[in-house]
């Protein structure tokens, strides 16, 4: 007998099936629904609409015949139709056609809206959150999904590596970005070579991954200082001209108020100087060295070959995955909660703050890319699954809604109940993982492990 949180799936290669948690099956069905709905949407976009069902055809034909019959009866009753009646019939016909089209599109829109774009796996330590991800990722790769998997985001905040602070306050991790791109290309190179580059969004990231316009904004204070210095020189020059009594130009002769005239002239000079100085600001970009990449893989390969542009290439690939509509994309992040504590890196800029001199992990370029849960809505054909991990720290009473996670997007994996633990032990016994386990000690080991899968495996593997 199986309980409500454990399911047995038949196996094609073994007489014993596969035991899965219900959260695993639910997420697998969500992935299947996501792929099916988006495959239908892409087919409809190409004009490959499937044939309607016979029942729908019969119902539509019956409604159309009824409308035509009512129109014929109206003609016989009125003894003819005038110009106004013809217009009314034409408007009703067009209205009926639009209603038919909306009725056909409404069920598909409802299915598309019902597909969720992100899930958060939560639970205590050792309940099997990583096990859920480790089952879904091979399944997605077997079904031709482009999978971006990060099992250890904590390493980017704890391992030693070179970091460089950008003008936007983001710490660039070029070596870690190269490792991320290398792992991404190891499993998805064929799919990345098939993806064309969206030219509209290519080249918008700076070296640290932030948007190019945001990076330019950090230079505005320097431009303001240069502007004020030039404007002071212009004011001194204007004052000397006024002392010498030089006349103003004819274009400004009609301005009676001299103070207003000076303010307008200075505003014109400010705009001209601002436009000149802003044109001289150049943000380094890989687009100048790789202007026309043929595929997304060329962007990733450029980042692998040039360490200075690795972080920018990683963010460019991420942005291309958001805009593409050809492949199903699965973003899987384990230890997602490790993207938010402070890192092992220290900086004087954080002295006297709540971070106590340590750089927050989400200010590092690689954890910053993985920390945003709400960017799952920006993927036109992507789904994001994150899992928490309390291996390094004690479980906290945190609020996922502050991170953009809604309540219906949380899937909690819990400890085994006594019946689930009994089935768990029986499954291990049938798989020849356990040998000669005494049935009378089942309750005793459940008490020792508390129904926790990690603790139970460690106890049973060491003793039986």
TrEMBL record:
What GO terms are given for molecular function? structural constituent of ribosome
User: Where, subcellularly, is it found?
Assistant: Mitochondrion
* Compositional bias per record (Basic and acidic residues), positions renumbered to this chain: 58-92
Provide one Gene Ontology cellular component. mitochondrial small ribosomal subunit
State the UniProt keywords alphabetically.
Answer: Mitochondrion, Ribonucleoprotein, Ribosomal protein, Transit peptide
Report the main location listed first in the record: mitochondrion
Return the InterPro entries for the record: Ribosomal_mS29
Show the Pfam families listed in the entry. Answer: DAP3 (PF10236)
Report the leader peptide range. Answer: none
Keyword Ribosomal protein in annotation: yes
Q: What is this protein called?
A: Small ribosomal subunit protein mS29
Q: Which organism is it from?
A: Toxoplasma gondii RUB
Which lineage ranks, top first, belong to the organism behind this chain? Eukaryota, Sar, Alveolata, Apicomplexa, Conoidasida
């Amino acid at each position: 007998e199986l309980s409500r949180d454990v399911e047995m799936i038949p196996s094609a290669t073994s007489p014993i099936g596969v035991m899965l948690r219900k959260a695993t099956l639910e997420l697998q069905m969500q992935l299947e629904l996501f792929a099916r709905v988006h495959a239908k949407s892409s087919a409809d976009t190409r004009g490959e609409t499937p044939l309607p069902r016979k029942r729908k055809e019969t119902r539509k034909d019956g409604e159309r015949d009824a409308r035509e019959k009512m129109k014929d009866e109206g003609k016989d009753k009125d003894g003819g139709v005038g110009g106004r009646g013809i217009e009314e019939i034409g408007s009703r016909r067009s209205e009926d056609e639009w209603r038919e089209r909306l009725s056909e599109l409404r069920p598909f829109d409802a299915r598309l809206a019902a597909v969720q774009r992100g899930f958060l796996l939560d639970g205590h330590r050792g309940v099997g959150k990583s096990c859920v991800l480790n089952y879904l990722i091979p399944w997605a790769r077997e079904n031709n999904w482009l999978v971006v998997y990060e099992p250890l985001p904590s390493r980017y905040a704890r391992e030693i590596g070179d970091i460089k602070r950008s003008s936007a306050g983001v710490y660039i991790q070029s070596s870690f970005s190269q490792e991320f791109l290398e792992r991404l290309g190891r499993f998805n190179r064929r799919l990345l070579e098939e993806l064309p580059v969206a030219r509209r969004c290519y080249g918008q990231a700076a070296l640290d991954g932030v948007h190019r316009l945001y990076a330019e904004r950090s230079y505005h204070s320097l431009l303001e200082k240069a502007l004020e210095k030039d404007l002071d020189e212009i004011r001194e020059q204007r004052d000397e001209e006024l002392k010498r009594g030089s006349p103003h130009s004819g274009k400004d002769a009609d301005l009676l108020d001299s103070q207003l005239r000076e303010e307008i002239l200075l505003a014109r000079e400010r705009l001209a100087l601002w436009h000149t100085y802003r044109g001289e600001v150049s943000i380094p970009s890989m687009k100048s060295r790789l202007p026309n990449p043929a595929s997304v893989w060329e962007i990733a390969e450029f980042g692998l070959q040039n360490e200075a542009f690795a972080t920018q290439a990683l963010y460019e690939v991420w942005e291309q995955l958001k805009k593409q509509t050809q492949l199903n994309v699965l973003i899987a992040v384990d230890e997602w909660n490790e993207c938010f504590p402070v890192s092992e890196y220290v900086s004087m800029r954080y002295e006297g703050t709540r971070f106590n001199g340590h750089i927050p992990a989400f200010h590092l370029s690689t954890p910053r890319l993985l920390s945003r849960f709400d960017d799952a809505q920006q993927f036109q054909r992507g789904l994001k699954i994150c899992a928490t991990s309390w291996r390094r720290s004690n479980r906290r009473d945190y609020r996922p809604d502050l991170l953009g996670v809604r309540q219906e997007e949380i899937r909690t994996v819990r400890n085994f109940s006594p019946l689930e633990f009994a089935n768990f032990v029986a499954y291990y016994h049938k798989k020849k993982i356990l040998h000669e386990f005494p049935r009378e000690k089942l309750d005793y080991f459940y008490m020792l492990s508390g129904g926790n899968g990690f603790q139970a495996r460690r106890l049973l593997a060491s003793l039986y």
